Amino acid sequence: xxxxxxxxxxxxxxxxxxxxxxxxxxxCFFLAKQALYPSSRFRxxxxxxxxxxxxxxxxxxxxxVTVAWQGGEPTLMGIDFYQRAIEIQEKYxxxxxxFENTMQTNGTLLNGEWCRFFKENxxxxxxSIDGPRELHDAYRVDKKGExxxxxxMQGLRMLQKHxxxxxxxxxxxxxxxxxxxxxxxxxxxEAGTDxxxxxxxxxxxxxxxxxxxxxxxxxxxxxxxxxxxxSFLSRIFDEWVRxxxxxxxxxxxxxxxxxxxxxxxxxxxxxETCGTGLALExxxxxxxxxxxxxxxxxxxxxxxxxxxxxAASDRQYRFGxxxxxxxxxxxxxxxxxxxxxxxxxKNRFLATADCSQELNYLCEGWxxxxxxxxxxxxxxxxxIRRGYPAAEIMRVLxxxxxxxxxxxxxxxxxxxGRKFKRCHGLRKITRKGR
Length: 434
Ligand code: SF4
Ligand code: SF4
Description:
ten-stranded mixed sheet, two-stranded antiparallel ribbon, binds iron/sulfur cluster
């Protein structure tokens, strides 16, 4: 064990109810994780809670600490649990330290009491919605198999009414991936959100038919197909880049823009290495990542060892570096490697042409998407580098398209007062004439 690898900021996703949820979304890989703890009550004890907060604070050398709650469904713990968590944060707070509590919820149990608590304690809430009713209800169902759209929308309206900070997480699955604009416009115009995270569903089927481990080369029929993902994101990007830059925050697009600017993307899947985002189970077991909650990636239990030791262990370091070190040659030679980085290792299970390495299942989709956005991203990055606001790209693209449409004798779209053929059209005509 060594301490030398501890980064200044680590991120721990805590699952106080383990995989337990009040719903039964068909594609949820978390639900299968109950099998890892056969006789558990799936409730985080006060002992684990206090150790978690104390150790998380100790492991931080930066003043801002994110305390992230996830599930299963974390609201099943009740408000008192999170009230205690806030008190413990105050108890161990270092001078100058601030906390941001985040929670990912299905939204169905939110009421006025929850929302007042979130508002008073500055929680950032992520709410899961897969699109308009028929798309959302395709997989997001309760234990009776009934759609949850109305209950989720009620939860969302409650958050909005109480002015709680929130964002929307939308999975991209086999069904809604064919309706990109319907999904995006619903989230923007009807749900009224301005912050959207898209997560592709990739479920691997294990030999016993379960989805418990990241093993097996077949995927479920709920999983998004690579070309679906590429076209889903590209079509939404086209709508966003012409209308919504600076107004609607789409995490994948923001991360891409940062890569075109040569900055860190802010999304682990597009980083060169991983290993700084760990997952804490209800009983104190700490895993390498939320996507690898399985025995091979169990680092230890925080009652026996400190989070800082486990996060800095050789094993965790190797887990993180493997993302880069095990990149197949096809990725290393890829023209969009700078943006994609081979995406998440959990999706790397396609045999490469020579069968010697593992390529990302979503490769085709990511490559198509990054190629599709290259031209506008180059313009966007150029504008930002020259000090213009990002939203300026919408005017540039509109002008570009007006030039494309303009006839020789039309007024030039640049408002010079000259005919197009005597102004910007001159270059176009000259270029074509060559
Ligand atoms: S394994 Fe995937 S989800 Fe986990 S940190 Fe790495 S890239 Fe992110
Ligand atoms: S687009 Fe495909 S080949 Fe390129 S880096 Fe991503 S996964 Fe690798």
